[in-house]
User: Fold this.
Amino acid sequence: MRSRHPWLNRLFSPHPQWVYKTGVMLLALLFSLLASFAISLYQVHNEIKHDVDYLDQIVSVAIKYGLEKPTLSEASVASGECSTDTIEQLEKLYVSHLLMSIPIVNLDKQKPYTYCSPFGVEQFEQRNFKNLLNTQLKGEMWRLAIVSLSTTPKHPPYLYGSNGQYGFLFPLRTEYLFLENDLDHQRSIRLSLPKENYTILEIGSLPNADRLYSNSVSSNYLPLTFESFVSTSRVLSKFKQNLWPVTTLLFMISLTILWLCVSYWHAKKEIALQKAVRDAQFFPYYQPIVDAQT
Assistant:
């Protein structure tokens, strides 16, 4: 018969009561810490998921509005100029789009970088366009680019989209009310077109070395992908916040469950021993005493 390892014999052999109590408390503490860390990870995941959902609604709806062609009067189109009537029509369209994306229209093919907008004439320069991309959106070829309309740092760059005549401008803000500014170094969100690997917007400045995990979510409205990154420091800070209320509660629950299990195990052994004695399953065994003088 194969004998057990001495450490196993020591583990399963009877121990003083304080050994079991200490073991139960250490196991309960370990379980509570692991469970609290898992809860912190889940909470951070939910936070950034909600951020992505809100951002998806804002960006996708704005681009969806921008892809709609404005209905202009024949006189405005035929004039080839950004008249007051055209500006008023674009203003109404801008308001109906909840001020999310700025509608623009090119009325002169000889001037491909001159557009009429709700604010008047917008004159672009080719050198101001960055990351030019031709892609198909809603069955039509569109040109996308990142363009700056002002040299002032406070003004954000814009996502420019145009099908040749009609287009839109969407401000690429990195600050929103639902995004905590103090978490910019703890999480980041990247918005891109997956097929072309074209980055439209990136929020947050999370270093690559501090990234704990990433999560990629497709937009519910357009062929866009939101890639979110969570830092180790963000999860640890949430874990520290949960130490007192959550970890303490989990420790008490784990301690109670483990103590009940150990008590049940001891009670089961005692009941089995009493039954064996009652059923006369034990036989006396006498060890003869051998004296060296005999």
Summary: The chain has a mean pLDDT of 77. The helical segments are 6-12, 17-66, 74-79, 84-96, 232-278. The radius of gyration is 35 Å. The chain is about 40% helix and 25% strand.
